[in-house]
Predict the structure.
Amino acid sequence: MRMRKKRHLESRLESVGGSLLLVEGSGFYHKSDDERTNHFDWAEVFGNDNPVEVEIGCGKGQFVIESAKRNPNINYVAIEKISNVIITACERAEKEEVKNVRFLNCDAFNLLYYFPKPAAQAIYLNFSTPYPQKTYAGKRLTHPKYIRIYSQILLNGGVIVQKTDDRTLFEYSIESFSACGYKLSRVTLDLHNSYYSEGNIVTEYENNFASKGLPIYSLTATKMQDNM
């Protein structure tokens, strides 16, 4: 079912300008490469040189906002392409006065227009859409074409942390990360009953899946110096 557009969405997006750095919009694809490029200096954006971590597909913001609260000395950049969803995250961040998180309302495939150089020490992929049909594999956020983008954003030694409830996507991701030269660790087929559950921040989807007794699959993929 298609999500109904939230009331006064445009004005609400304008009102959270302190947290929302960018609304890509449909007009993005009619622009030239130069017009699309909007490189952010994260030290300038946040007013400090703290490490940067990125969540791709932040949804309503539960994970990134809780992460930011627990780790005030880390800056978080949250990506979500659906305006109707990201507005909830932005409004919550502003209401709760979370100062170390910023939002980009954009497609993950366009991230290099906004990241001028490797800046992130971690990227989080939480419960990304699995796109189970093989014909849609190119849309998966762990397809090699996306991993190559992440490699240009991540610092050497940086990590990608994935959580999913979809076994097929998880197995596909393991193959993709391995093929792209990433080193895998903390691989588990049941996160909540593993040694790696300590400190885990539960997302909206994760709450739902776990309450039904479904296993949560998780891994950490580390960027090696030569796997661009």
Q: What stands out?
A: The radius of gyration is 17 Å.
